[in-house]
Amino acid sequence: xxxxxxxxxxxxxxxTRFAPSPTGxxxxxxxxxxxxxxxxxxxxxxxTLLRIEDTDRKxxxxxxxxxxxxxxxxxxxxxxxxPLFQSDRAERHAEVAWALLNxxxxxxxxxxxxxxxxxxxxxRANKKPLRYDGRWRDRDPAEAPEGTPFTxxxxxxxxxxxxxxxxxxxxxxxxxxxIDDYIILRADGTPTYMLAxxxxxxxxxxxxxxxxxxxxxxAFRQLPIIRAMNAIEGNWPDPVYAHIPLIHGSDGAKLSKRxxxxxxxxxxxxxxxxxxxxxxxxxxxxWGHGDREEITKQEAVELFDLDGVGxxxxxxxxxxxxxxxxxxxxxxxxARLAALVAARIGETADLALLEKAMPVLKVRAKNLNEVxxxxxxxxxxxxxxxxxxAAQLLDGDGRTILRKxxxxxxxxxxxxxxxxxxxxxxxxxxxxxxxxxxxQPMRAALTGTTTSPGIFDVLVLLGRDEALxxxxxxxx
Length: 476
Ligand code: GLU
Hints:
Belongs to the class-I aminoacyl-tRNA synthetase family. Glutamate--tRNA ligase type 1 subfamily. The chain has 476 residues and is mainly α.
């Protein structure tokens, strides 16, 4: 018997879901899966849903649930219904297990854990794959002593093969005898993960299952439940599957903490990445539209489809993310950036001044940390702390030159960068010096560092009094 997964005919509305297990934060791979599901649904005018797969009570935490929901929200991914919690639905999952049992698509297995361990031990010894051998598949349950605990196992097809037409992996075929009769309901009456996923996807009306390709094998285990329920009730169509390749590190190995496989909040908080930059970066990680790098959310909704998803793993590259981030920083509204940067600087930050300074602060920055570092001089208190290099610029005749600059600028009435530049240039010429010879000690005196925005912008941003006071404080 050969069976093929089919496109659910007659279903006009696309429904996708993101189904994270809240055992950790929303990491980069999960965020990308969420993004692709969201984009696919939005592109097709469908719905997208969030399901928290919290059935592993020991490993699921409220902290992780909050981080996932917050991370999705920060990325700008919204859902068409409140999140569904898998753990709330155990009764419904069990109901389906019993329906499968009653219709003969599943059976009770009375094998004890010790017996199953002995079975595996023997398989190991004979170098056979470790699989349940179907010992209760055709046995009369009446043979089990009264009151013996049992699990419910799915009666999966033993012959033939199953083919999935995956929208990313293309045609994938697995022999049915490779899928054992696995447990769908445990002896304590709780559903297994494999059953829960299928029942929830059906009940949520999910038409397209888009997830990491580490779940491709699961699709071959999940389809027999879907097919059996379809035989019993009808209206349990196969979903369309799209298993997307995992993300690898820049060295080609599977992404791990070592490569920066952190929660999205780490990119927000520690790396100072804007959500639209991460959105764009995750989109480009495994999906392409020609060689376009910069794609806005709106364009992404217009352009995204599964055809553009590549089959080979993509490599995570923090430099590319930062380059995109630099682009979005330059595009971003200055008042918004000022608020984000102020939060990094703390109480000393002056929001209005930050906003005014933002056009010059953000030009070369690749992340919010760099903007905050670049802005620090604005709020520094006299006497300014000097970096070692800045102090060196004031050695020699640096302080003597500063005195001349200070005196000259004190007479300047037009405190604009154009006028200040003209005055400083004139002084440089008079002294027979290059502009740099003046600008370097000025920068040191005004900012305490050797890198800053253009020196005349710095003078203007600090304002006449503060700028002159800083120059005077370092002048000989
Ligand atoms: N909960 C699974 C995970 O976080 C996803 C299950 C699925 O998408 O079917 O890996």
